[in-house]
Amino acid sequence: MTREVFPPLLLLLVLLLPLFGASQRCLQDPVSAYRFTGTVCRLTHPAAVVLNEKTTKVIEAAFQHAKYPSVKGEKSLLFVGRVTYGLENLEIHNLSIGRSAFELRAGEGIAMEISNVSAIFRGTIQYGYGSWLVNLGHSIDFEVDSQIDLGINPKLYCGKGKVAADTSDCYLNFHKLHLHLQGDKEPNWLKKLFTDFITFTVKLVVKGQICKEINKVANILADFIQDTAEDFLSDGDISVDIGITTAPVITANYIESYHKGLTKYNKTTAVISDSAFHPSHLTENRMLYFWLSDQVLNPLVTAAHQDGRFQLNITGAEITVSTQTVTFLHLETVLLSVTFSENGNFRSDASLDEVQSEFIREAVEKIGVPKVLSVLEVEITRVLDKQGTNLFDIENPEVLPRDGFVVIQMDFGFPHHLLVQFLKRTLQ
C-alpha cells in the first residue's frame, strides 16, 4: 500500500504507548517475545542526539538535589594532641556543565560522559584540638572550587515488567579541588590538615551522593514517564497495558523496546499471542518509529465503540437521497449500527429488503462515510489535545499500513514542557 501523511490521530494516540507500564515477568530472549509483542518503539541515533542535548539539565538536577551528609574525623599530632574535626552543611553553588556526549554500545548499554562540571562546595568545619593543658573548640566556613568530569554507563533491563536503568557504573574524575578557608587566619599546619581532610572528604562524599542521586533521579524520571503515559492512555474505563515483554535491545544505531499493548476495558484484557513483529519491519531513516499490530488497534477501537465514543447523528436534511435519517454508521473496524426512519426510528436487520439495503449502502458510502471522517478527525484530535498531545513537537509524521500491522514514523523536537514538569517534580 502507498504511504500517506498521517494527521494527528492514531499517531498521537500511541505516542506514549511504548514508555512504561505494569506487566508480568519478561522473557529473556527477545525473539521469543516477539509473538507476544503488540507495540515496538525504535529510537534511532539522531533522536538520542536530540534527547542528549538536555541531559545536562537532568545532571544539574542530580547535583542540586543531592543531600551531603556530615562527616567527622580525628587525628593525633605531636605537641598539639588530638585534633577532632567535622564537615557540616555541605552545599553546592555556581554549578555549570560544559557538555554531554554519549555512545550506543551494541549489546552492552549506553556510555555517557559529562565533562567540565564546575561547582563550588560550601560548608563549615567544626574542629577542636588541645592537650591536657588546653582544649579549644572552633568553627570555620570554607569553599572548595572544583572541576569534575562525570561518567555513567547505564544498562537497560526489565524491572518488574517495565524498562529500568541500572546506573551503578558511575564515576567522577576531579581535575581541580582548591580549598578556601574564611578569613584564612588559621595556622599553616591546621590549614594543611583541613586541606587533606576536606579534599578527601569532598571527593568521597560528592562521588557517593552524586552517583546515588543520579540513580534516584533516574527512578523519578521513570515514575514521571510512567505517570504521564498512564494518564495519557487512560480515559474512563479504557486503558492499555504497556508493560514490556523483554528487555530493550541496543545497537550502535538505535534503542528498541517491546511492549504488550493490551487493551483493558470493563475488567477484561485483550490477548496477543501470535504477533508478526520482526526487526526488518523498521528502518533507521527517521528519528522515532512505532510498530503497531492490528491486534492492538482492533481491540482498542472496539472498546472505544462499545464505550459509546463513536456515535454521530446525521439528520434527514443532510441526506439528499432520501428524507430518512441515518444515525449510526459502519466503517471497517468501527462497529456502527444503522437507523433510518420516516416518522420514527427503524434499525437495520436481516428483514431489510433489497431496496432498503441498497439505500443504506448508498447513504453510507456517499454521505455517511465522508461525514464521519470529517467529524472523527476533529473530535479525536480534540480528545488527544485534551490529553496533552498538542504539546509535542512532532515533525512529518507518516503512517505505513502493512498486512497485519502499521508502522508510524516521525521526527521530533525536544518536548521542553515535559522537561520543565520533570525538573519541577525533581526539585520539589
From TrEMBL:
What is the official name of this protein in its record? Cholesteryl ester transfer protein
Q: Residues of the signal sequence?
A: 1-23
Residue stretches spanning the membrane: none
Keywords noted in UniProt: Cholesterol metabolism, Disulfide bond, Glycoprotein, Lipid metabolism, Lipid transport, Secreted, Signal, Steroid metabolism, Sterol metabolism, Transport
**What is one cellular component GO term in this UniProt entry?**
high-density lipoprotein particle
Q: Which GO terms describe its biological process?
A: cholesterol homeostasis; cholesterol metabolic process; high-density lipoprotein particle remodeling; low-density lipoprotein particle remodeling; phosphatidylcholine metabolic process; phospholipid homeostasis; reverse cholesterol transport; triglyceride homeostasis
Q: In which domain of life is the source organism classified? A: Eukaryota
Task: Extract the coiled-coil ranges from the record.
Answer: none
Chief localisation class = secreted
